Every structure is written in structure tokens, then in C-alpha cells.
Amino acid sequence: MLFDKLLGLFSLDMGIDLGTANTLVCVRGEGIVLSEPSVVAVKRGTNQVLLNGNAVGLVAKEMWGKTPANIVAIRPLKDGVIADFDITEAMLGYFIRKVHNRKWGVKPRVVISIPSGITAVEKRAVTNSAERAGARKVYLIEEPMAAGIGVGLPVQEPTANMIVDIGGGTTEVAVISLAGIVTSESIRVAGDEMDDAVKHYIKRTYNLLIGDQTAERIKMQIGSAHPLEEELSMEVKGVDSIAGLPRRAVINSEEIRDALREPVELIINAVKVTLEKTPPELAGDLVDNGMILCGGGGLLRGLDKVLMEETGIPCTLAADPLTVVAKGTAEILEQIDLLAKILASSEDQI
Ligand code: ADP
Ligand code: MG
User: Fold this and answer.
1) pTM of the full structure
2) Which residues pair with 316 in a beta bridge?
3) Which of 178, 197, 262, 340 is most buried by its number of CB atoms within 10 A?
4) Coil, helix or strand for 46?
């Protein structure tokens, strides 16, 4: 429609990667303008957002694990489902306004990528939240599709490509062809489960209690899925689970690899299951095209190697795995015809 096209010239159209760990916002023509943790601080026992609605994102994550008794920091999408609609809405609204306030006027069109496991009711809630936060039109697209576009895969071609996106709460595996998702798997095992595995290991082995942030730091600093050329070690501080006093311990990468074995195996299994469900013609394409690994969890050292060894299919880590989904949403804003094709091939779009 001509009118809509004209409006588009003036509006600040946005692409949003609504992730379980991080939310990224891009603006058409500008790239990524915001990247913050998907965290909201609320008053305990309520869904009342603190600090006049400003305790969202980085501000809220800093409160994580350090909050006084009457405040809790919540991740509303933690397990890939929307745990609390009101809090999700507050968060989405905050991010949209933060970006949109920079410009006058016309309400934006917003493309939002969502975890592929969320229900129709949750999709409706995301759409409504974005509309209430000032969007003129909201388009939802599935995360693996956005990732595929973000890494520059020829998603519209009649050839299969595979995306393995490991986020905080969910791992999404999908085979894409002709602008549609042919087969997919979404499991609630990703970065958070890795952190939990590290935490439990340190407690079991060293009687040392550590927080979520420390567990995540250990995973990033010395975690791996495949033996390293040079094994690493680091010092960890926590609380002795018996004496109740703070103390330190030195741990190495072989131990952490052992601790991470279970979540890593579950991820490998999700990839294998997806491959088994893929029609033979398309599975054949994957032998050449391979799979693209993305999402922050994809950065775990040696995960690409293990996936390749276990499946026999080439695996490439995306160049900037944390931003590919957001870049994909921005790309879609530029190509409205591509958006139409994607929406047409996703039957349950609301
Ligand atoms: P989501 O899309 O669910 O918001 P992201 O793609 O932003 O998730 O990835 C967040 C996850 O990636 C977190 O669990 C984080 O710990 C993990 N992560 C980030 N960097 C690394 C790294 N270098 N090694 C291992 N995991 C990482
Ligand atoms: Mg993601």
C-alpha cells in the first residue's frame, strides 16, 4: 500500500531478537542499537517492575544474585516459554521505547524473532505487548529463520541448510529450505543448563557453593566440549557448603568438560534427531552445506568439532554468533517480499 510505504520512509522500523538471555534491537538502516540482558527486577511476590519501570536489562542484571530480600531479578523467558506475560510486556515495552524515544513521530513496524517452541497464546501476548508499547505493525518470525537470514544463507533456494542456535534457555535446531522451516527441534537445554551443570559439579566435587554468574564465567573462561590443545585452569571463589565460610579452589578445563558432558550430549542428540527427521533429498544437501552454529552457547570451545565428529556433517561457527538473529530481523525489514514468503510458509502465524 502506498500510504504504508510512505509511512515506512519516516518510521523507525525495528527488528528485535527477543532472546531468553539477551534482547537485541536493530533499526532499519542503522544496525544493532541496543543489546541488553532479558532481565527485569521486580518487587518480590509481585510483578511490579522497580525504579519506575527502569529496572530492566543491564540495570536489572547487575542486581542478579545480589538483590535485597524484597527484590528479585527475573528472566521472563528463561526456559524458552513466557513465564510471566506482564513482565515480558514491561521488558519489551522498555526496550522499544528506549530505542524509539530517540526519534519523533511515526509508530514503527517491528519484526520480532521468538523461540520456535512458544505457543500461539504466547505469540499473541508478544504481539499485543509490542503494540501496546507503540508498534504500528508487528511481525513474528521464528528464531532459526532469522538466524539463517542473519548469516546470509540462501534461505529462499530449494536447497537445505541447517541452523543450530544455542541460546540461554533453548537450543533450536532447524532445517530451512524455500523460505520455510522443514523440520525442527527445540529443547530446553542450552547455556543455562551448562551453568547449572558447572554449579552442581563444583558443589559435588569441592563442597563449594557458587552463584549463577560465577558458573557462567567458568563456562566461558575454561569450558569446552572437545579436548583442548592446551588445557586451562582458573581460581574460583565461593562458600564452603559445610563450614559456611568463603574460600577458593582451583579447577581445570578437563573437569569442566566432564561437568558439561550431559548438556552437550543432549544438544548433539537434538541435532541427530532433526537430521533423522529430514527428508532424504534435503538431508543429502546438508552433507555439502553443513550446519551453522550460532547463539552464545555456540561459542563453547570445541562444540563445532564435536558436532562434526558425531554427525559427520560439516559445522561452521557463525562469525558473530550472538548477533546473527538480530541482524536477520534487520535484513527482513529491508526485504518486505522475503517477509511475505516467510509468513506464508509459517502456517500458524497469527
Ligand atoms: P538467547 O538467544 O537465548 O538470548 P544468546 O544467544 O544471547 O541467548 O546466548 C546466551 C548464552 O550464551 C548464555 O547462556 C551465555 O552464557 C552463553 N555464552 C556467551 N558467551 C559464551 C562463551 N564464550 N562460551 C560459552 N557460552 C557462552
Ligand atoms: Mg537467541
Assistant:
1) 0.92
2) 292
3) 197
4) coil
Half-sphere exposure in the Cβ direction for 122 (13 Å, CA):
18
Rounded CA-CA distance 189/187 in Å is 5
Residues bordering ligand 2, an ion, CB closer than 5 Å:
19, 167, 325
Nearest to 91 by CA among 78, 79, 102, 104: 78
Query: Cα of 265 to ligand 2 centre, how many Å?
Result: 20
**Atom nearest to 325 CA in ligand 1:** 2
Asked if 162 and 174 touch (Cβ cutoff 8 Å), the reply is: yes
If you ran DSSP here, which 8-state letter would residue 11 be given? S
Contact yes or no for 57/116 (Cβ under 8 A): no
- Look up residue 226 and give its three cell numbers: 572437545
For residue 42, CA distances in Å to 18, 45, 97, 239 come to: 19, 8, 19, 27
Q: Beta 233-240 vs 246-252: how paired, if at all?
A: antiparallel
Ligand 1 pocket, residues with Cβ under 6 angstroms: 19-22, 167-169, 191-192, 216, 219-220, 223, 295-297, 299-300, 322
Testing ligand 1's pocket by substitution, the residue of 20, 213, 323, 329 carrying the most ligand atoms inside 8 A of its CB is 20
Place of cell 535485597: 68
Cα(295) to ligand 1 centroid in Å equals 6
pLDDT in tens, the chain (350 residues): 566 665 555 667 899 999 999 999 999 888 899 999 999 988 887 777 776 667 888 888 877 666 666 788 889 888 877 878 888 888 998 898 888 875 556 788 899 998 877 889 889 989 998 998 888 899 999 999 999 999 999 999 999 999 999 999 999 999 999 989 999 999 999 999 999 999 999 999 999 999 999 999 999 999 999 999 999 999 999 999 999 999 999 999 999 999 999 999 999 999 999 999 999 999 999 999 999 999 999 999 999 999 999 999 999 999 999 999 999 999 998 887 777 777 777 754 44
Amino acid at site 29 = G
CA of 159 to the centre of ligand 1 (A): 29
The C-alpha cell that represents 120 in the structure block: 500461539
How far is ligand 1, taken at its centre, from the CA of residue 115, in Å? 15
